[in-house]
Amino acid sequence: MTQPEAKPATDPSEAKPQVYLATPCYNNTVNSAHVETIYYASKQGLLKQKMAPSFSILTHTFNLAYAHALTSRAKGITHFCMLHDDIVPMEFFWLDKMMALMKANGADILSVVSPIKDDKGLTSTALDLPLPGSLFDPAYRLTRLTMSEIYNDYPPTFTHEKLLVNSGLMLVDITKPFADKICFRFENRIEFNKVTQQYDALVMSEDWLFSRDAAKLGAKIFATREVPIYHCGGAKFPNTHVWGEWDKD
């Protein structure tokens, strides 16, 4: 009897997910809240490798971990997860939940919505659309979503053709072709503002550029509030409910 042709052992469609977790930190100082968070990240055994890179250049810190994760695909790693040292998941087994949401939505990149650390209720989840009425260069002053919009205008996990996501807690499927063609990078410029008669220092953040670059390569990008977190600063800024002074950016 002729045996059916076997699939290669490395076929990514059959591989059990294995996650590389990067917890970038400054001065080699890890947030104490992360110890329990990481220990209880997964009850399904998804977490296989960890790295806590520390470097004065933020994007290089992120890229050190991302490059190591790409190399670790030879050892079975399928996903890269970034957890910033000021983002704290509020539930155990948060990585299992992120993986389930990624699979259910067919996402290549899944980012947890994170509030910005002030009282406005803005988030670092945005749309790659110029903010109407802004005095700044529209290529840099894009539209951030507020906690009010996240809860009232979008489903718990969502996508948008212009979605830009945050890297604070982000899961990336690095088995996909786009994964080899992107990195974390900043874009900076200084220009004279004819309206205000002042020079403006403009920046495009590494997470938004990562989103933009991945989208151009066909990646399916989603954001979610279904994984509860808080962003630690002078206080704890949660993503669990509507709050903040602003309804819109």
Describe the structure.
- This protein is an alpha+beta fold and 249 residues long.
- 20% of the residues lie in helices and 28% in strands.
- The protein has five helices and 15 strands.
- The chain has helices at residues 33-39, 58-71, 94-105, 147-152, 206-216, and strands spanning 19-22, 47-51, 79-83, 87-89, 109-112, 122-130, 142-146, 157-158, 163-164, 169-173, 187-193, 198-204, 221-224, 229-232, 236-238.
- The strands form four sheets. Strands 2-1-3-10-5-13-8 form a seven-stranded mixed beta sheet, with helices on both faces. A three-stranded antiparallel beta sheet has the order 4-14-15.
- A hairpin with a 3-residue loop joins strand 14 and strand 15 (236-238).
- The longest helix is centred in the first third of the chain and has 14 residues, at 58-71.
- The protein is globular and about 55 Å long.
- The N and C termini lie far apart (67 Å).
What does the overall shape look like?
globular
Instruction: Output the radius of gyration.
Output: 19 Å
Number of helices: 5
Binned strand content: 25-35%
The overall average pLDDT, rounded, is: 91
- How many DSSP-defined strands? 15
Helix content: 10-25%
H/E series: EHEHEEHEEEHEEEEEHEEE
Please report the distance between the alpha carbons of the first and last residues: 67 Å
Instruction: Extract low-pLDDT stretches.
Output: 1-12
Structural class: alpha+beta
Sequence of strands across the biggest β-sheet: 2-1-3-10-5-13-8
Largest sheet: 7 strands, mixed
